[in-house]
Amino acid sequence: MIGKADRQMSFSDYWLLGKISEVSYYHRLRTWVFNNLNEEMFQPLFSYYGRESISPVYTFTAMLIQFEKGYSDREMEEESRFDDRIKYALTAPRDFDGIDAVTLCDHRKRLFNSEIGKEIFIKTISQAKEVGLFNKDNLHIIDSFMIWGSCARQDTYTMIYQGIKMVLRFMKFYEMEDASKKILKRTDYEENIKKPKIAWENEKEKAKLLEELVKDALLLVENIKTKKDIKDDLKKAIELLERIALQDVEITNDGHVKMIKGTAKDRIISVVDDEMRHGRKTSSKLSDGYKAEIITGGEKGSVVVGIEVDGANIADGEHMSDLIEQSRRNGVDIDKLYGDCAYSDFEEIEKRKEEGTDFCIRVPEATNPSGGFSKEEFKIDLEKGTVECPNGHIKQFDTEKTQKHEQVTVKFRAEECNDCPLKDQCTKSKKGRTINIHPYEKEIQEQREYQKTDEFKEDYAKRPNVERNISELTRHGGRKGRYRGKLKIRWQMIMVAINNNIKVIMKHISKISNRQIKKGEVCPKTA
């Protein structure tokens, strides 16, 4: 049964009112919560019968404070009992007994599977529009940032070993374990260890262990698949075990198992959180976990209007279309979108331009990793369908394909390239130089020329405003995942975005009020 917030102020509460600074996070959050949250919003999460719980207004506000200040559930329990600033922000009286960690956990679990967080996020966007944040200096910028996973990255041996143990636990719960013990070669799966104890510097022992683990895993999977009426959680566990058993290895014709070179595509890195992924923001910055992509709007792009979460291995720009659509559903029409090279998807750009959205997107410069002539040093004539190399050799290509936005590959003959005096500056291939004509080559060429102008440089200089937003989001709860799985991480990012938007809205209202007071007008807060 839903609890009610106690909004009756005592003399003690009134005394505290003047002690908390009006520009503090606590005061601004209290003001926003007092005017925007009520128990009716959370009623779908609770029964109409039973013991009364703590007000979800208190717990939801406490969760916002947790992300802002980095508190754990236990720390939040203590702060809500003894810190007057926290009680003030919660809109609770000074004699409030606090929120215990179990209640926080229970209410959060209910919120994970509801749309309430998303609805409140949309509400902050609507409020930002109402207070005038979208009237001038409105910037829509798209960018991404990494979210560290809450679980450790596991090696292949640990993942398979822990995957087998996980399946055995499910089988024990469903009273199926006796059959499994007879088919497994290893007998240490019930021991309380993360992975088997061997001489890890000995390559032969490692190879033997890998073979034992993979074969045990596949035998277990095969055995369970023959059963009827497999429960959903067990089915999911054996599918995960089969995937991690095979993703890093190959089985030779004689039945032996060996590790493959390189990294498997979309590789799982933990059985504890199987949605985490390897990722890199740059060639030198590695990260394991998730990636968030955001669209900002409002004054200097300070309001988050759309957010998506995916594995860390997903390329930047993958969710550009989804974010534009989400922003529209959230009540924000994007007239112009700023982004870096990752968002130079001209198929999407051309589609959105037809809908009235303009773009200020940078395209990457043409480079040659081997250090020779780049593609820009070849004269590409899209109307005539020719490519001329720096030494004057000309090749034809099909212009009908480029007009249909199909990729075209132009190959210079090996004889021409091998006898060319500029070969060392062009290609190391004995088969000759190859030039790929992009499906949107015309648009890319035009954009590269436009990027050299002062007009573009002045306009594109607005894009870095999003870095301030990302810094704010990552410093206040957005850098490290607190939970497991995309669903919960996405909820976390929505909460972080709500916090950001509240601070921006309340700061803007305060600025307007101060400006009106200086002019001698009546402040709407005190009228």
TrEMBL record:
Pfam families: DDE_Tnp_1_6, DUF772. It comes from the Bacteria. Transmembrane segments: none annotated. Residues 389-505 form the Transposase DDE domain. Residues 28-110 form the Transposase InsH N-terminal domain. NCBIfam families: transpos_IS1182 (NF033551). This is IS1182 family transposase. It comes from Aceticella autotrophica.
